[in-house]
Task: structure prediction
Amino acid sequence: MTTISQPDATMPGVSTPAKSRDARRVRGLSDRAIAWLFVAPTIALLLAINIFPLIWMIRLSFTNLNLSMSYLPLRFVGLDNFRDILTDEDVWFRLQTTAQFVISSVVLQVVVGFGLALLINRQFRGHSFWTTIILLPMMLSPAVVGNFWTLLLQPQIGPFNYLISLFTGVPPSSFSMTGQVSLAPWTIVLVDTWMWAPYVMLICLAGLRSIPDYIYEAAEVDRASAWRQFWSITLPMTVPFLMLAVLFRAIENFKMFDMVNLLTSGGPGSTTELVSISLKRAAFEKWRTGYSSALAIILFVTVFGAANIYVKTLNKVKQR
Amino acid sequence: MSGSVIAKGGVARWFRRGPWESVAMTLIGGGIIMLVQPWSIDLYSYSFVTILAGTVGFVIVSHFPE
Result:
Protein backbone atom coordinates (compact mmCIF):
# COMPACT_ATOMS: atom_id res chain seq x y z
CA MET A 1 0.00 0.00 0.00
CA THR A 2 1.33 3.32 -0.96
CA THR A 3 0.85 6.34 1.21
CA ILE A 4 0.79 9.81 -0.16
CA SER A 5 2.50 12.21 2.19
CA GLN A 6 0.63 15.45 2.83
CA PRO A 7 2.57 18.70 3.13
CA ASP A 8 3.20 19.37 6.83
CA ALA A 9 1.68 22.64 7.95
CA THR A 10 4.21 22.97 10.79
CA MET A 11 7.18 22.71 8.44
CA PRO A 12 8.96 25.96 7.78
CA GLY A 13 8.12 27.53 4.46
CA VAL A 14 4.81 25.68 4.22
CA SER A 15 1.85 27.80 5.26
CA THR A 16 -1.86 27.31 5.42
CA PRO A 17 -4.26 30.11 4.44
CA ALA A 18 -5.33 30.59 8.10
CA LYS A 19 -1.73 30.91 9.26
CA SER A 20 -0.81 33.42 6.63
CA ARG A 21 -3.92 35.41 7.57
CA ASP A 22 -2.71 35.47 11.23
CA ALA A 23 0.75 36.46 10.16
CA ARG A 24 -0.69 39.28 8.08
CA ARG A 25 -2.72 40.43 11.08
CA VAL A 26 0.38 40.48 13.32
CA ARG A 27 2.36 42.21 10.58
CA GLY A 28 -0.44 44.76 10.39
CA LEU A 29 0.18 45.86 14.00
CA SER A 30 2.46 48.78 14.52
CA ASP A 31 5.56 48.45 16.75
CA ARG A 32 3.82 50.61 19.31
CA ALA A 33 0.77 48.34 19.36
CA ILE A 34 2.92 45.22 19.76
CA ALA A 35 4.81 46.92 22.61
CA TRP A 36 1.50 47.73 24.32
CA LEU A 37 0.36 44.13 23.79
CA PHE A 38 3.40 42.85 25.71
CA VAL A 39 3.26 45.49 28.42
CA ALA A 40 -0.51 45.39 28.98
CA PRO A 41 -0.61 42.28 31.25
CA THR A 42 2.05 43.77 33.52
CA ILE A 43 0.25 47.10 33.67
CA ALA A 44 -3.06 45.35 34.43
CA LEU A 45 -1.40 43.34 37.21
CA LEU A 46 0.29 46.44 38.66
CA LEU A 47 -2.99 48.33 38.61
CA ALA A 48 -4.80 45.48 40.34
CA ILE A 49 -2.13 44.70 42.97
CA ASN A 50 -0.46 48.07 43.64
CA ILE A 51 -2.38 51.06 42.37
CA PHE A 52 -5.95 50.02 43.21
CA PRO A 53 -5.15 49.14 46.90
CA LEU A 54 -3.17 52.39 47.20
CA ILE A 55 -6.09 54.48 45.95
CA TRP A 56 -8.46 52.49 48.17
CA MET A 57 -6.19 53.08 51.17
CA ILE A 58 -6.06 56.83 50.46
CA ARG A 59 -9.87 56.84 50.39
CA LEU A 60 -10.08 54.87 53.67
CA SER A 61 -7.63 57.19 55.41
CA PHE A 62 -10.26 59.94 55.29
CA THR A 63 -12.93 57.76 56.92
CA ASN A 64 -13.70 56.43 60.40
CA LEU A 65 -13.77 52.78 59.26
CA ASN A 66 -13.23 50.31 62.09
CA LEU A 67 -13.48 46.72 60.93
CA SER A 68 -14.45 45.43 64.39
CA MET A 69 -17.50 47.72 64.17
CA SER A 70 -18.22 47.44 60.47
CA TYR A 71 -21.95 47.74 61.15
CA LEU A 72 -21.42 51.46 61.82
CA PRO A 73 -21.95 53.71 58.80
CA LEU A 74 -18.81 54.81 57.00
CA ARG A 75 -18.27 58.49 57.75
CA PHE A 76 -15.92 60.96 56.04
CA VAL A 77 -13.74 62.48 58.78
CA GLY A 78 -11.46 64.65 56.63
CA LEU A 79 -7.93 64.99 58.03
CA ASP A 80 -8.87 63.82 61.56
CA ASN A 81 -6.90 60.54 61.29
CA PHE A 82 -3.79 62.41 60.16
CA ARG A 83 -4.26 64.96 62.96
CA ASP A 84 -4.62 62.14 65.51
CA ILE A 85 -1.43 60.44 64.33
CA LEU A 86 0.61 63.62 64.11
CA THR A 87 -0.29 64.63 67.66
CA ASP A 88 -0.04 61.14 69.16
CA GLU A 89 3.04 60.77 71.39
CA ASP A 90 2.93 56.96 71.14
CA VAL A 91 3.36 57.02 67.37
CA TRP A 92 6.08 59.64 67.80
CA PHE A 93 7.95 57.34 70.23
CA ARG A 94 7.55 54.39 67.81
CA LEU A 95 9.08 56.51 65.07
CA GLN A 96 11.97 57.38 67.37
CA THR A 97 12.49 53.68 68.15
CA THR A 98 12.48 53.02 64.41
CA ALA A 99 15.02 55.80 63.84
CA GLN A 100 17.28 54.43 66.60
CA PHE A 101 17.09 50.97 65.02
CA VAL A 102 17.77 52.37 61.52
CA ILE A 103 20.75 54.48 62.62
CA SER A 104 22.39 51.75 64.78
CA SER A 105 21.95 48.98 62.24
CA VAL A 106 22.99 51.04 59.21
CA VAL A 107 26.14 52.35 60.96
CA LEU A 108 27.10 48.81 62.02
CA GLN A 109 26.32 47.38 58.59
CA VAL A 110 28.43 50.02 56.85
CA VAL A 111 31.38 49.49 59.19
CA VAL A 112 31.23 45.68 58.98
CA GLY A 113 30.35 45.65 55.26
CA PHE A 114 33.14 48.05 54.32
CA GLY A 115 35.64 46.10 56.44
CA LEU A 116 34.62 42.84 54.77
CA ALA A 117 34.86 44.47 51.33
CA LEU A 118 38.42 45.63 52.07
CA LEU A 119 39.32 42.07 53.10
CA ILE A 120 37.61 40.38 50.14
CA ASN A 121 39.15 42.89 47.71
CA ARG A 122 42.57 41.34 48.40
CA GLN A 123 43.39 38.20 46.45
CA PHE A 124 44.00 35.26 48.79
CA ARG A 125 43.62 31.49 48.86
CA GLY A 126 39.95 30.41 49.15
CA HIS A 127 38.81 33.90 48.18
CA SER A 128 35.69 32.69 46.28
CA PHE A 129 34.74 30.21 48.99
CA TRP A 130 34.80 32.85 51.73
CA THR A 131 32.90 35.32 49.56
CA THR A 132 30.11 32.74 49.13
CA ILE A 133 30.05 31.97 52.86
CA ILE A 134 29.82 35.68 53.72
CA LEU A 135 26.99 36.21 51.23
CA LEU A 136 24.87 33.31 52.55
CA PRO A 137 22.84 35.22 55.22
CA MET A 138 21.71 37.76 52.64
CA MET A 139 20.17 35.01 50.53
CA LEU A 140 17.94 33.74 53.34
CA SER A 141 14.36 34.82 53.82
CA PRO A 142 13.83 37.22 56.77
CA ALA A 143 11.19 34.80 58.10
CA VAL A 144 13.75 31.98 58.19
CA VAL A 145 16.34 34.26 59.79
CA GLY A 146 13.83 35.40 62.42
CA ASN A 147 12.89 31.83 63.27
CA PHE A 148 16.34 30.36 63.54
CA TRP A 149 17.74 33.31 65.49
CA THR A 150 14.81 32.92 67.91
CA LEU A 151 16.03 29.37 68.45
CA LEU A 152 19.71 30.40 68.69
CA LEU A 153 18.85 33.07 71.28
CA GLN A 154 16.75 30.84 73.53
CA PRO A 155 18.13 31.30 77.08
CA GLN A 156 17.79 27.60 78.01
CA ILE A 157 18.68 25.70 74.83
CA GLY A 158 20.12 28.32 72.48
CA PRO A 159 23.88 28.15 71.78
CA PHE A 160 24.26 31.95 71.72
CA ASN A 161 23.90 32.33 75.50
CA TYR A 162 26.36 29.46 76.04
CA LEU A 163 28.87 31.20 73.79
CA ILE A 164 28.52 34.46 75.74
CA SER A 165 28.78 32.49 78.97
CA LEU A 166 32.02 30.92 77.74
CA PHE A 167 33.63 34.34 77.31
CA THR A 168 32.10 36.24 80.23
CA GLY A 169 31.36 33.60 82.84
CA VAL A 170 27.74 34.79 83.18
CA PRO A 171 25.34 31.81 83.59
CA PRO A 172 23.61 31.17 80.23
CA SER A 173 20.06 31.12 81.55
CA SER A 174 20.53 34.34 83.57
CA PHE A 175 19.84 36.62 80.62
CA SER A 176 17.53 36.66 77.63
CA MET A 177 18.61 38.50 74.50
CA THR A 178 15.05 38.97 73.24
CA GLY A 179 13.30 39.24 76.60
CA GLN A 180 15.30 41.95 78.37
CA VAL A 181 14.60 45.65 77.85
CA SER A 182 18.31 46.54 77.73
CA LEU A 183 19.25 43.74 75.30
CA ALA A 184 16.29 43.35 72.92
CA PRO A 185 16.96 46.51 70.79
CA TRP A 186 20.58 45.43 70.31
CA THR A 187 19.47 41.91 69.41
CA ILE A 188 17.44 43.09 66.43
CA VAL A 189 20.33 45.35 65.38
CA LEU A 190 22.73 42.38 65.67
CA VAL A 191 20.56 40.03 63.62
CA ASP A 192 19.86 42.66 60.98
CA THR A 193 23.57 43.44 60.71
CA TRP A 194 24.38 39.72 60.42
CA MET A 195 21.91 39.45 57.57
CA TRP A 196 22.56 42.65 55.61
CA ALA A 197 26.24 43.54 56.13
CA PRO A 198 27.08 41.23 53.16
CA TYR A 199 24.86 43.36 50.95
CA VAL A 200 26.75 46.50 51.97
CA MET A 201 29.94 44.55 51.35
CA LEU A 202 28.86 43.82 47.77
CA ILE A 203 28.15 47.49 47.05
CA CYS A 204 31.45 48.58 48.63
CA LEU A 205 33.28 45.89 46.66
CA ALA A 206 31.87 47.35 43.43
CA GLY A 207 33.17 50.75 44.58
CA LEU A 208 36.62 49.41 45.47
CA ARG A 209 36.95 47.56 42.14
CA SER A 210 36.04 50.73 40.23
CA ILE A 211 39.16 52.53 41.51
CA PRO A 212 41.82 52.39 38.76
CA ASP A 213 45.13 50.78 39.74
CA TYR A 214 47.21 53.63 38.30
CA ILE A 215 46.02 55.92 41.11
CA TYR A 216 47.53 53.56 43.70
CA GLU A 217 50.65 53.19 41.55
CA ALA A 218 51.04 56.99 41.46
CA ALA A 219 50.58 57.07 45.25
CA GLU A 220 53.26 54.37 45.61
CA VAL A 221 55.62 56.46 43.50
CA ASP A 222 54.93 59.40 45.82
CA ARG A 223 55.74 57.07 48.74
CA ALA A 224 52.29 57.48 50.32
CA SER A 225 51.74 55.12 53.24
CA ALA A 226 48.93 52.52 53.19
CA TRP A 227 47.02 54.60 55.73
CA ARG A 228 47.42 57.75 53.61
CA GLN A 229 46.27 55.83 50.49
CA PHE A 230 43.18 54.67 52.37
CA TRP A 231 42.20 58.17 53.53
CA SER A 232 43.10 60.00 50.31
CA ILE A 233 42.12 57.47 47.61
CA THR A 234 40.08 54.48 48.80
CA LEU A 235 37.62 56.23 51.12
CA PRO A 236 36.83 59.32 48.97
CA MET A 237 36.33 57.19 45.87
CA THR A 238 33.99 54.74 47.60
CA VAL A 239 31.90 57.40 49.38
CA PRO A 240 29.20 57.55 46.61
CA PHE A 241 28.81 53.76 46.88
CA LEU A 242 28.65 53.98 50.67
CA MET A 243 25.97 56.67 50.34
CA LEU A 244 24.02 54.34 48.10
CA ALA A 245 24.28 51.50 50.61
CA VAL A 246 23.30 53.79 53.49
CA LEU A 247 20.22 55.11 51.69
CA PHE A 248 19.09 51.69 50.52
CA ARG A 249 19.52 50.06 53.90
CA ALA A 250 17.92 53.02 55.70
CA ILE A 251 14.81 52.78 53.49
CA GLU A 252 14.63 48.99 53.94
CA ASN A 253 15.11 49.18 57.70
CA PHE A 254 12.53 51.92 58.04
CA LYS A 255 10.01 49.44 56.60
CA MET A 256 11.39 46.46 58.59
CA PHE A 257 8.61 44.23 59.90
CA ASP A 258 8.96 40.48 59.36
CA MET A 259 12.23 39.76 61.15
CA VAL A 260 11.47 41.96 64.18
CA ASN A 261 7.95 40.58 64.43
CA LEU A 262 9.34 37.04 64.59
CA LEU A 263 12.19 37.86 66.95
CA THR A 264 10.52 40.06 69.58
CA SER A 265 7.01 40.99 68.29
CA GLY A 266 7.83 44.50 69.45
CA GLY A 267 8.53 43.42 73.02
CA PRO A 268 9.45 43.33 75.84
CA GLY A 269 6.70 45.90 76.44
CA SER A 270 7.11 48.19 73.48
CA THR A 271 10.92 48.43 73.56
CA THR A 272 11.35 47.13 70.01
CA GLU A 273 7.98 48.18 68.65
CA LEU A 274 8.90 49.70 65.32
CA VAL A 275 6.36 51.85 63.51
CA SER A 276 5.58 49.00 61.10
CA ILE A 277 4.61 46.77 64.03
CA SER A 278 2.54 49.65 65.45
CA LEU A 279 0.79 49.88 62.10
CA LYS A 280 0.04 46.15 62.05
CA ARG A 281 -1.37 46.39 65.60
CA ALA A 282 -3.60 49.33 64.71
CA ALA A 283 -4.83 47.61 61.55
CA PHE A 284 -5.20 43.96 62.61
CA GLU A 285 -5.46 43.95 66.42
CA LYS A 286 -7.40 47.16 67.10
CA TRP A 287 -9.05 47.06 63.63
CA ARG A 288 -8.76 50.87 63.26
CA THR A 289 -8.69 50.71 59.48
CA GLY A 290 -9.11 54.43 58.74
CA TYR A 291 -6.44 55.40 61.27
CA SER A 292 -4.00 52.71 60.13
CA SER A 293 -4.55 53.69 56.47
CA ALA A 294 -3.55 57.26 57.35
CA LEU A 295 -0.44 55.99 59.18
CA ALA A 296 0.41 53.80 56.17
CA ILE A 297 0.16 56.86 53.90
CA ILE A 298 2.50 58.85 56.15
CA LEU A 299 5.04 56.02 56.00
CA PHE A 300 4.54 55.60 52.26
CA VAL A 301 5.17 59.30 51.55
CA THR A 302 8.25 59.20 53.80
CA VAL A 303 9.68 56.16 52.03
CA PHE A 304 8.74 57.57 48.61
CA GLY A 305 10.53 60.83 49.43
CA ALA A 306 13.62 58.97 50.64
CA ALA A 307 13.49 56.75 47.53
CA ASN A 308 13.62 59.89 45.34
CA ILE A 309 16.86 60.90 47.05
CA TYR A 310 18.12 57.32 46.61
CA VAL A 311 17.40 57.30 42.86
CA LYS A 312 19.07 60.70 42.48
CA THR A 313 22.18 59.41 44.28
CA LEU A 314 22.12 56.24 42.17
CA ASN A 315 22.13 58.33 38.98
CA LYS A 316 25.07 60.36 40.28
CA VAL A 317 27.00 57.14 41.00
CA LYS A 318 26.17 55.84 37.50
CA GLN A 319 27.53 59.04 35.94
CA ARG A 320 30.91 58.56 37.64
CA MET B 1 11.50 89.91 20.08
CA SER B 2 14.62 90.49 22.11
CA GLY B 3 12.34 91.07 25.09
CA SER B 4 10.81 87.61 24.71
CA VAL B 5 14.28 86.07 24.38
CA ILE B 6 15.30 87.78 27.59
CA ALA B 7 12.10 86.66 29.26
CA LYS B 8 12.67 83.11 28.01
CA GLY B 9 16.25 83.21 29.28
CA GLY B 10 15.02 84.52 32.62
CA VAL B 11 12.44 81.74 32.93
CA ALA B 12 14.99 79.12 31.91
CA ARG B 13 17.40 80.50 34.47
CA TRP B 14 14.81 80.31 37.23
CA PHE B 15 13.36 76.92 36.37
CA ARG B 16 16.51 74.84 36.21
CA ARG B 17 16.24 71.33 37.60
CA GLY B 18 19.46 71.18 39.64
CA PRO B 19 18.90 73.85 42.32
CA TRP B 20 15.17 73.08 42.69
CA GLU B 21 15.91 69.38 43.11
CA SER B 22 18.33 70.29 45.86
CA VAL B 23 15.61 72.37 47.55
CA ALA B 24 13.10 69.49 47.28
CA MET B 25 15.64 66.99 48.62
CA THR B 26 16.47 69.30 51.53
CA LEU B 27 12.75 69.53 52.34
CA ILE B 28 12.40 65.72 52.25
CA GLY B 29 15.50 65.21 54.39
CA GLY B 30 14.45 67.94 56.84
CA GLY B 31 10.95 66.45 57.05
CA ILE B 32 12.31 63.00 57.84
CA ILE B 33 14.52 64.46 60.59
CA MET B 34 11.49 66.35 61.96
CA LEU B 35 9.49 63.11 61.93
CA VAL B 36 11.94 61.12 64.07
CA GLN B 37 13.62 63.78 66.26
CA PRO B 38 12.99 63.31 70.00
CA TRP B 39 12.87 66.99 71.09
CA SER B 40 9.72 68.76 69.89
CA ILE B 41 6.27 67.36 69.18
CA ASP B 42 5.46 70.52 67.20
CA LEU B 43 8.23 69.71 64.74
CA TYR B 44 6.85 66.15 64.58
CA SER B 45 3.35 67.50 63.83
CA TYR B 46 4.60 69.51 60.84
CA SER B 47 6.93 66.80 59.54
CA PHE B 48 4.45 65.09 57.23
CA VAL B 49 3.48 68.34 55.51
CA THR B 50 7.18 69.09 54.97
CA ILE B 51 7.92 65.65 53.51
CA LEU B 52 4.81 65.82 51.31
CA ALA B 53 5.78 69.28 50.02
CA GLY B 54 9.31 68.04 49.29
CA THR B 55 8.12 64.89 47.55
CA VAL B 56 5.48 66.60 45.40
CA GLY B 57 8.00 69.36 44.67
CA PHE B 58 10.60 66.78 43.63
CA VAL B 59 8.16 65.12 41.23
CA ILE B 60 7.36 68.53 39.67
CA VAL B 61 10.90 69.88 39.42
CA SER B 62 12.23 66.64 37.96
CA HIS B 63 10.35 67.68 34.80
CA PHE B 64 12.21 71.00 34.59
CA PRO B 65 14.97 71.32 31.95
CA GLU B 66 18.57 70.65 33.04
